[in-house]
Design goal:
Structural class: alpha/beta
Radius of gyration: 18 Å
Bound molecules: zinc ion
Shape: globular
Largest sheet: 5 strands, mixed
Number of helices: 5
Helix content: 40-55%
Distance between the termini: 57 Å
Protein backbone atom coordinates (compact mmCIF):
# COMPACT_ATOMS: atom_id res chain seq x y z
CA UNK A 1 0.00 0.00 0.00
CA UNK A 2 1.31 3.48 -0.86
CA UNK A 3 0.01 7.01 -0.24
CA UNK A 4 -0.47 9.60 -2.98
CA UNK A 5 0.41 13.32 -2.75
CA UNK A 6 -2.84 14.16 -0.96
CA UNK A 7 -2.10 11.60 1.70
CA UNK A 8 -4.87 9.19 0.58
CA UNK A 9 -3.98 5.56 0.58
CA UNK A 10 -3.90 3.95 -2.83
CA UNK A 11 -3.04 0.42 -3.81
CA UNK A 12 -0.31 -0.37 -6.27
CA UNK A 13 -1.42 -2.45 -9.26
CA UNK A 14 0.91 -5.26 -8.26
CA UNK A 15 -0.59 -5.40 -4.79
CA UNK A 16 -4.13 -5.58 -6.24
CA UNK A 17 -3.02 -8.25 -8.69
CA UNK A 18 -1.52 -10.35 -5.89
CA UNK A 19 -4.71 -9.93 -3.82
CA UNK A 20 -6.90 -10.98 -6.74
CA UNK A 21 -4.78 -14.03 -7.48
CA UNK A 22 -4.63 -15.13 -3.87
CA UNK A 23 -8.39 -14.74 -3.48
CA UNK A 24 -9.41 -16.47 -6.70
CA UNK A 25 -6.67 -18.90 -7.51
CA UNK A 26 -7.86 -22.05 -5.71
CA UNK A 27 -11.33 -21.91 -7.26
CA UNK A 28 -9.95 -20.91 -10.63
CA UNK A 29 -7.45 -23.75 -10.79
CA UNK A 30 -9.85 -26.32 -9.36
CA UNK A 31 -12.24 -25.40 -12.19
CA UNK A 32 -9.46 -26.32 -14.62
CA UNK A 33 -8.94 -29.65 -12.83
CA UNK A 34 -12.71 -30.16 -13.02
CA UNK A 35 -12.57 -29.62 -16.80
CA UNK A 36 -9.99 -32.41 -17.00
CA UNK A 37 -12.30 -34.64 -14.96
CA UNK A 38 -15.17 -34.03 -17.40
CA UNK A 39 -12.88 -35.04 -20.30
CA UNK A 40 -12.18 -38.30 -18.45
CA UNK A 41 -15.92 -38.95 -18.06
CA UNK A 42 -16.46 -38.33 -21.79
CA UNK A 43 -13.93 -41.08 -22.46
CA UNK A 44 -15.64 -43.54 -20.12
CA UNK A 45 -13.03 -43.04 -17.39
CA UNK A 46 -13.81 -42.45 -13.72
CA UNK A 47 -13.92 -38.63 -13.72
CA UNK A 48 -10.86 -37.40 -11.85
CA UNK A 49 -8.83 -34.48 -13.16
CA UNK A 50 -5.71 -32.62 -12.05
CA UNK A 51 -3.60 -29.61 -12.92
CA UNK A 52 -0.20 -28.53 -11.60
CA UNK A 53 0.44 -24.82 -11.14
CA UNK A 54 3.78 -23.03 -10.92
CA UNK A 55 3.98 -19.21 -10.60
CA UNK A 56 0.21 -18.97 -11.07
CA UNK A 57 0.45 -20.75 -14.40
CA UNK A 58 -0.78 -24.22 -15.32
CA UNK A 59 2.27 -26.21 -16.39
CA UNK A 60 0.69 -29.68 -16.53
CA UNK A 61 -2.69 -31.34 -16.83
CA UNK A 62 -3.84 -34.88 -16.26
CA UNK A 63 -7.02 -36.87 -16.28
CA UNK A 64 -7.66 -40.43 -15.22
CA UNK A 65 -6.74 -42.71 -18.16
CA UNK A 66 -6.63 -46.17 -16.60
CA UNK A 67 -9.11 -47.64 -19.13
CA UNK A 68 -7.61 -46.01 -22.24
CA UNK A 69 -4.05 -47.00 -21.34
CA UNK A 70 -4.96 -50.30 -19.65
CA UNK A 71 -2.73 -49.15 -16.82
CA UNK A 72 -3.93 -49.09 -13.22
CA UNK A 73 -1.28 -46.50 -12.37
CA UNK A 74 -2.57 -43.97 -14.95
CA UNK A 75 -4.27 -41.78 -12.35
CA UNK A 76 -4.74 -38.06 -13.09
CA UNK A 77 -2.13 -37.08 -10.48
CA UNK A 78 0.57 -39.44 -11.83
CA UNK A 79 0.04 -38.18 -15.39
CA UNK A 80 0.20 -34.56 -14.20
CA UNK A 81 3.32 -35.16 -12.04
CA UNK A 82 5.16 -36.75 -14.99
CA UNK A 83 4.09 -33.92 -17.34
CA UNK A 84 5.15 -31.23 -14.82
CA UNK A 85 8.57 -32.81 -14.26
CA UNK A 86 8.99 -33.01 -18.03
CA UNK A 87 7.97 -29.34 -18.45
CA UNK A 88 10.32 -28.12 -15.71
CA UNK A 89 13.17 -30.47 -16.59
CA UNK A 90 13.30 -31.31 -12.90
CA UNK A 91 12.12 -34.35 -10.99
CA UNK A 92 11.20 -32.20 -7.97
CA UNK A 93 8.10 -30.00 -7.91
CA UNK A 94 9.10 -27.91 -4.90
CA UNK A 95 7.46 -24.69 -6.15
CA UNK A 96 4.29 -26.24 -7.49
CA UNK A 97 0.70 -26.82 -6.39
CA UNK A 98 -1.38 -29.79 -7.49
CA UNK A 99 -5.14 -29.30 -7.81
CA UNK A 100 -7.09 -32.53 -8.05
CA UNK A 101 -10.85 -33.07 -7.98
CA UNK A 102 -10.72 -36.14 -5.71
CA UNK A 103 -8.63 -36.91 -2.63
CA UNK A 104 -5.52 -38.73 -3.90
CA UNK A 105 -5.15 -42.46 -3.23
CA UNK A 106 -2.17 -43.73 -1.24
CA UNK A 107 -0.23 -44.52 -4.45
CA UNK A 108 -0.59 -40.93 -5.66
CA UNK A 109 0.18 -39.55 -2.18
CA UNK A 110 3.40 -41.60 -2.33
CA UNK A 111 4.29 -40.13 -5.75
CA UNK A 112 3.50 -36.64 -4.43
CA UNK A 113 5.80 -37.35 -1.48
CA UNK A 114 8.69 -38.18 -3.82
CA UNK A 115 8.00 -35.06 -5.92
CA UNK A 116 8.33 -32.86 -2.78
CA UNK A 117 5.48 -30.74 -4.14
CA UNK A 118 4.80 -27.51 -2.18
CA UNK A 119 1.06 -27.82 -1.90
CA UNK A 120 -1.79 -30.21 -2.62
CA UNK A 121 -5.41 -29.03 -2.97
CA UNK A 122 -8.19 -31.55 -3.43
CA UNK A 123 -11.94 -31.23 -3.95
CA UNK A 124 -14.05 -34.19 -2.83
CA UNK A 125 -13.00 -36.62 -0.11
CA UNK A 126 -12.61 -40.32 -0.82
CA UNK A 127 -13.33 -42.19 2.38
CA UNK A 128 -12.64 -45.62 0.85
CA UNK A 129 -9.43 -45.10 -1.07
CA UNK A 130 -8.18 -41.66 -0.03
CA UNK A 131 -4.73 -41.31 1.56
CA UNK A 132 -6.09 -39.37 4.55
CA UNK A 133 -7.16 -42.69 6.01
CA UNK A 134 -3.44 -43.10 6.73
CA UNK A 135 -2.95 -39.45 7.68
CA UNK A 136 -1.21 -36.42 6.17
CA UNK A 137 2.16 -38.04 6.98
CA UNK A 138 1.98 -39.85 3.63
CA UNK A 139 2.79 -36.49 2.02
CA UNK A 140 6.20 -34.83 2.27
CA UNK A 141 6.65 -32.82 5.52
CA UNK A 142 7.10 -29.65 3.38
CA UNK A 143 3.80 -30.17 1.52
CA UNK A 144 0.90 -27.94 2.54
CA UNK A 145 -2.56 -29.42 2.23
CA UNK A 146 -5.97 -27.87 1.52
CA UNK A 147 -9.21 -29.62 0.65
CA UNK A 148 -12.92 -29.09 0.09
CA UNK A 149 -12.46 -26.69 -2.86
CA UNK A 150 -15.50 -27.13 -5.17
CA UNK A 151 -16.23 -30.24 -3.11
CA UNK A 152 -19.93 -30.51 -4.02
CA UNK A 153 -19.30 -30.22 -7.78
CA UNK A 154 -16.43 -32.71 -7.71
CA UNK A 155 -18.51 -35.22 -5.72
CA UNK A 156 -21.56 -34.76 -7.94
CA UNK A 157 -19.55 -35.44 -11.09
CA UNK A 158 -18.43 -38.80 -9.66
CA UNK A 159 -21.92 -39.69 -8.42
CA UNK A 160 -23.45 -38.86 -11.82
CA UNK A 161 -20.84 -41.01 -13.54
CA UNK A 162 -21.48 -44.05 -11.36
CA UNK A 163 -25.29 -43.72 -11.37
CA UNK A 164 -25.20 -43.41 -15.17
CA UNK A 165 -23.01 -46.53 -15.36
CA UNK A 166 -25.35 -48.51 -13.12
CA UNK A 167 -28.44 -47.24 -14.97
ZN1 LIG B 1 -4.28 -42.25 -7.29
Amino acid sequence: MIANAKGNCIFSWNFIKIMMLSIHSDDYFMKEAFREATFAAENGEVPVGAVIVCDNRIIARGSNRTEQLGDITAHAEIIAITAAADFLGSKYLTDCTLYVTLEPCSMCAGALYWSQISRVVYGASDEKRGFMKFGKALLHPQTKLSYGVMEADCRQLLQDFFSHKRG
